[in-house]
Amino acid sequence: MWAIVVHGGAGQITSASREEHEALLEAVKSGAEVLASGGSSLDAVERAVIVMEDSGFFNAGSGSCLNIAGEVEMDAAIMSGGKAGAVACVKRIKNPIRAARKVMELTDHVILSGEFAEKFAVKLGLEISNFITEEKMEKYRKLMEVFRRKEWYYKVNKDLLDRYPDLLHGTVGAVAVDSRRDLAAATSTGGVWLKLPGRIGDTALIGAGTYADSRVALSATGIGEYIIKMGLGTRAGMMAEMGMRADEIARALISKMSSEFGRGIAGVIVLDRDYRMGIDYNTAGMRRGWMRSDMKRPVVIDI
Ligand code: ASP
């Protein structure tokens, strides 16, 4: 048996185009193919995330948002079998999740950031790309006008997001469990629009936005600062250790987020070693999809 769940970000999502739907479906299918052919959960989550990084429809890889300096700074992390790797604040790596996996497999560190993380990736032959497009610059200029007029923006908080929902969208993540019951999690993001340069979110932090151990795997999305403070991934691990199921864990985590910080903050996908899944969020929507070996076809929900 095997299972995979992916997300394409939590936020104020009100609609999805046909292409966005297809991209999410493609991500679930490619991860599922890896698992169906006997591949590992680690390969499956990496594959699914690469598809979303490459699609341009999500806030990860080619679709990444811009920070307040008009630059792309991406975070990504991957974890499985007691090993973890991450990159933070990388500007040009085409697939940050590939770089995260290299950190996990080739170094004794967990996170590499900035310039050296890029040099490391280039040295290993990973592709580089420029993700700053005219379309993004257009949105950047519009958002900057608002913030110049109204406030000095670096408070990535809920009130601000309620007013400018466009700032948070489309982080991607995947969790999977394979036929050997090995669990894996992967998450990749451009962060939030107009974040300060050098800001690192929950995605890159093992135990916050990305986590997998022998009982449970989690990928989170939402306002990273709250997810870090709550240590969602580590909490999921502790809840699984106490015997909770994936669905109970997802509900408990989001209910805790709501009671601590209010609604409109975060979403999680969770899988446990018994192939049970949990999905919950307290934002208006969260793009998500899943497939299990006993299902005929994948399910994808766009909002
Ligand atoms: N969690 C991501 C971050 O704060 C953003 C997101 O999930 O959309 O960097």
Automatic annotation (TrEMBL):
Its Enzyme Commission number(s) read 3.5.1.1
Q: Can you tell which superkingdom this protein's organism belongs to?
A: Archaea
Q: Which Gene3D superfamilies match?
A: (Glycosyl)asparaginase
Name of the protein described by the UniProt record: Plant-type L-asparaginase
Q: Matching Pfam families, A to Z?
A: Asparaginase_2
Q: Where is the active site?
A: 171 (nucleophile)
Q: Which CDD domains match?
A: Ntn_Asparaginase_2_like
- The keyword Hydrolase is assigned to this record: yes
UniProt xrefs under SUPFAM superfamilies: N-terminal nucleophile aminohydrolases (Ntn hydrolases) (SSF56235)
Record flagged with keyword Hydrolase = yes
